[in-house]
Design goal:
alpha+beta, Rossmann fold, 120 residues, 22% helix
């Protein structure tokens, strides 16, 4: 019984990449990454961080109105224990940012924070 279970598991492991082509990495339009560094970041409590560094990723191309304001931007945040890279997992990203999806990256410009670091 154990040998059969092991063989079944190995078969699934070997076949899994061939069975799930929809989970393949998607190429997103205008994917960019960068860092925003804020000096002397002040909280509402009055506490100040000497430096707050936010790493971010953006998709798509921003569109601006006559005043120069971005009109198709969407900001997505993640939980503090994860990474913004999780937004690009095919199982999630294809459903959010794919053509015709709610945050179609060809129609809007999603942006998400990936990491935050501070210096004391």
């Amino acid at each position: 019984m154990t040998v059969r279970a092991l063989l079944a598991a190995l078969t699934l492991l070997v076949a899994a990449p061939a069975v799930t082509p929809a989970a393949a990495q998607t190429v997103w339009p205008n994917l960019r990454e960068g860092d925003l560094v804020l000096k002397d970041f002040a909280f509402a409590s009055g506490e100040i961080l000497p430096e707050l560094k936010l790493h971010y990723r953006t998709l798509g191309t921003e569109k601006r109105n006559a005043a120069g304001e971005i009109i198709n931007g969407v900001v997505l945040l993640h939980g503090t224990s994860g990474s913004g890279a999780d937004w690009l997992r095919p199982s999630l990203a294809n459903e959010l940012f794919g053509a015709g999806q709610p945050l179609d990256a060809t129609a809007c410009a999603p942006s998400f924070r990936t990491t935050a670091t501070t210096t004391s």
